[in-house]
Fold these 3 entries.
Entry 1:
Amino acid sequence: MALVPGIELLRRAYEEGYAVGSFNINNMEILQAILQAAEEEKSPVMIQTSQGAIKYAGAAYLAAMVKAGAEQVSVPVALHLDHGDDWKVALQCLRYGWTSLMYDGSHLPLEENIRETRRVVEMAHAVGVSVEGELGRISGVEEQVAVSEREAFFTDPEEAEIFVRETGVDYLAVSIGTAHGLYKGKPDLDFPRLEEIQRRVKIPIVLHGGSGVPEDQIKKAISLGVAKINIDTELRQAFLKTMREKLEENPNQLDPRKVLGPGRDAMVAVVKEKMRLFGSSGKAR
Ligand SMILES: [Zn+2]
């Protein structure tokens, strides 16, 4: 299928009470693993690229690869920019055919975040592309901050209402206790806050740092309006662990396919497991 706008996938997920997994890619093997899993699970899927991935692989390469991959599966696929913080990169993505953009102005004061996000929304909506905004800071687990300090960065429900109304974003990333990277302890999501945000914004909510969040918390979050869940770390782990094992088994290996191939297979299993947990399996139409 041709790529579809992100909101098409998320609106259905939001209305029907499941979440679409949005998985980061940097190369062909990761993309193929995600698309194979989506096809086997009959699940809609989002492929996302960070600005770092675009710098590494190039926007033209990534877009061509994702379009080629999407055409070979029967499930709907959206191509999303993860954590864009530069409208020029957003514009570049529009030119190359991304169908969903995140503008992350969460480091900016509210007024400025609204202004910059709205600029990207106007640009993207003009060509039928949907936009994710972020309000509240989602930390990296490597940043050692006390819980009380961490909560200072949580999304304020009242500000979220203003932000969504003023920017026109299609979906909203919130900070409610998840983090990027590997969790040291068990994450503890702030569900009353999520509930209050949802009551006020009434649009699909995006959960970043989905890797390692316990299943019961994922399900609860979906029941409260989370319709997009980002997964990166668990794919990296499966990919690299398998490749490392293959290289250790045969340090003189001269065929990269004998290392990359098993790494790709390991990622398929991880993605399928997430799709079942998120409830998106069997939802492709
Ligand atoms: Zn993120």
Entry 2:
Amino acid sequence: MTTRSSAGTVRAVHVLSAGTGSIHMEHRYGSSAPQLWWVLFSRRWVQVPINVFVIEHPQGLVLFDTGLDPAVFTDPRYVDSAIGRFFMRRLFRLEPASVDSLSSRLATLGFRAGDVQKAIISHLHFDHVGGIGDVPQADLLVSRTEWNQLDGLHPERDFIFREHIRRPGARWRIVDFQPTNDRLLAPFGGCHDVMGDGAMILLPTPGHTPGSLSMLVHVEGRAPLLLIGDLAYEARSLMTDQIPGTGDRDQLLESYARARGLKAGLPGLEILPAHDSRAKSVLSRSAEVELSARTWSPDP
Ligand SMILES: [Zn+2]
């Protein structure tokens, strides 16, 4: 196992439910049918949570993704383009009752949106950037490749809505990954140390979108975490090369292999997707283990 050159850790990681939706079975588990066919004709839906991760770092509160904007339900023109609205209805079933503002969700954990120092955006899909208006003071970190998609011809056709991303005053910070000699991280081709102490490391993991990133988090007193956004919809899919129905197949397979390589070098690493219902139980189970370890450790 590699010894880390800087051994920072975060104090805790929480998962916040930012709503619930459903996607087609073919979307989640892949299909031999053409994508347009299942988008238009599939009647098989599977429910998925929308997770936001809240990270307590000694220097401040950090989010990994920000969830849905409740305005997606109340504003009929939230999606500007007609084709975007058409495909959105066919790809996603969102449950309005399950969505509240990011500020309100954070308050349920005892946090204030005003205390968020940084929000890491795994990729620019609408269900990951919907809460950025609640944290105008926060630096919003996104990879340069992902950001460049905004200059494409029709990013809205890929559920990237410029008008909700380039908000006035939004503190976007574009991440350029730096080369690394770390044996575990080098296969990713670069990394970015969020706080400069090694506690949170951003890694390029393209496939779901060209600029998708993941974050390796070293947590005090427990095994590390790899937050992967939508790279896979379940950790199990990543471990078994089960490719979802969207994204770049070759890039997904490469990113899956790199994530598995990281897990091999970091025993106990937990992989947490943004839409995996296991996230909450994984984190609470870890907290229980941690608590029982503390209960049983002898006094110094
Ligand atoms: Zn996505």
Entry 3:
Amino acid sequence: MSNNTTNVLILGAGYGGSVVANTLARELRKEIARDELEITILDKSGTFINQAGFTFIPFDLFTPEELIMPRKKLISPRVNAFYGEDGEVTNVDLKKREVTVKSNKKYNYDYLVIALGCQAAPEKTPGLLDDYNTFFTTLEDTYKLKEKLMNFDKGRVVISVANYPIPCSGAPVKFSFMYDSYLRHVKNKRKDIEIAVAWPIEGIGPPEFNKFVSGELEKKEIELHRNFITTKVDANKKEITSERGETLKYDLLISVPPQKTNPVLIKSGIADSKGWVPADTTSLQYKGPNGIDKNVFVIGDSGDASILKTGIATHYQAVTVSQTLFNMIKGYNIIKPYYGKAGCPMITELETAFTDGRGYIPTWKYNQPNEAYKTTRLGWYIYRMYYHLHWEMSVKGMF
Ligand SMILES: Cc1cc2nc3c(=O)[nH]c(=O)nc-3n(C[C@H](O)[C@H](O)[C@H](O)COP(=O)(O)OP(=O)(O)OC[C@H]3O[C@@H](n4cnc5c(N)ncnc54)[C@H](O)[C@@H]3O)c2cc1C
């Protein structure tokens, strides 16, 4: 590396970080070959796990092998990649432009992309860890939940989304629809099992998304409790309590725990009072107490509380930031705006002996809410295929 080499450092080789690394490595391959540019990506693990697939695991729609991929197969060889102790970030110093990892190695940068995702914080809800069943954390937790769910034959299941924001607002209702379909058409147990969803804010996604899923919940006789911020779980009484003091009884509790940005970012003093990493909602540049840092970008689940967190949103943010970085490295100094493009795939019916699968992938932008939509049989097939295509198309930044 010469003194004239521009250094792009990407923290996190999950969805967002991988797209930025692969897009830049392709678009700027000449600059890399001429030693004018170096791209480095850091991650604590050498394995990519597609967490969006967890929702499907209890219904046997994916195997773990389909959701796991070594990062060596995903990140361009033009990128310097460090995993494990040399990749696990322990401190980010924006003043010194220096990132420290577990092995104590330090990395400097000209441009920094923060894509460290977010983390479950079940400890924020008293009692939650006493009765903690979730598909929102790890494959192991999801398999434990699957076992409980498959052995549950009678009673009341409550799916509680403790607080907001969460990654993928649509995932909890999608899970309830798939469970409903599974009980009706596979297990023939729906009449013995009540399903309720406790949702922490008023709307579920943008207006048309909310309208559609609300109608489906009603049709499927799934109870919906809006504005129910779960503040307490009582495992003995089998009851959750909301901020407003309402209670809901359950026999089996499924929780989407409160979320927070990556703890390393909180420890490094980069998060704001809401607990997320503030960024300009259009340029995606870090917006700290001293204003915008032009050389630091924040994408995906780590990012600003006001920007919707989904894999689809992360993808478009990564594409946008890659274009801005391309412009800056080439000296054009043009910021590509992020217009809030996001989406949240929906499924309302499983494909069973008695039903066609039904799905759809609604998308929207900041000032352009999604249009009215219906789930379709074709949508089901596209969504089912997508997690196979996602490795080659999305993660490698091909679109
Ligand atoms: C159950 C579930 C279902 C979902 N369903 C959908 C869906 O259907 N559609 C959709 O669009 N989105 C969905 N999402 C959301 C989607 O998965 C996320 O929005 C997306 O993965 C965010 O990408 P990211 O790059 O910000 O974070 P991640 O993909 O989480 O990547 C963060 C990376 O940072 C790494 N990391 C963490 N800490 C450190 C550290 N200290 N040092 C180094 N590396 C570190 C991690 O190993 C990881 O690779 C779902 C999420 C969940 C949990």
